[in-house]
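Troubleshooting log. The previous structure file for this entry was overwritten by mistake, so regenerating from the original sequence record. Sequence copied from the archived sheet and checked twice against the printout by T.R.
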Amino acid sequence: MSLDTPAQARERAIRRVLTALLLANLAVVAIKGAVGYFTGSLAVLGDAVQSSVDAINNILGLIIVRFAARGPDDDHPYGHAKFETLGALAVVVFLSVSIFELVRGAIDRLTHPDRVVAVHAVDLALIVLTLLINVWVAWFERRRGHALKSDLLLADAEHTQSDVYVTLGVLTGLGLTRLGYAWADPVLALLVACVV
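Regenerated output below.
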């Protein structure tokens, strides 16, 4: 039985953290996507897109950690860091299309306010649940990032912390919508698009 080197043990620990976070982020995306779909809330759908970036970042992180651990070889004399750049480009393309559709829908909703967003107490409770999950994810990832001295985990924890603020804004918008302020949903969808 071979023993891991410290670098291999660190890589394995980071992958475990990223896998746990991926599962949490997929749950958040599923909940927000379902609430957005059933309520018709563009702000919640935009928040789901924002949260999907976290899941994509986790997947990219798993790939990057694996490839970054490899040193230079005959095909990659300077190492494998360019894989991170290609992954970031894929995220940018996905986000650009999603944000374009979100902004288009929000403008359409503002100019044609005939669609009503139906927000129930259970929808608000589910968004609060996703908020709590994101608070835990940011705390856990920051803690493990410091322990493992991982810039990747620390940077992603900061990104997840920004998701907490977006979700707080969306939750406020849902509350306003529930109180009868129909304009709140498309306006907050535009704000979410700007943050993303």
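Helices lie at 6-39, 42-68, 82-111, 121-148, 151-178, 184-195. Archived copy saved in two places this time.
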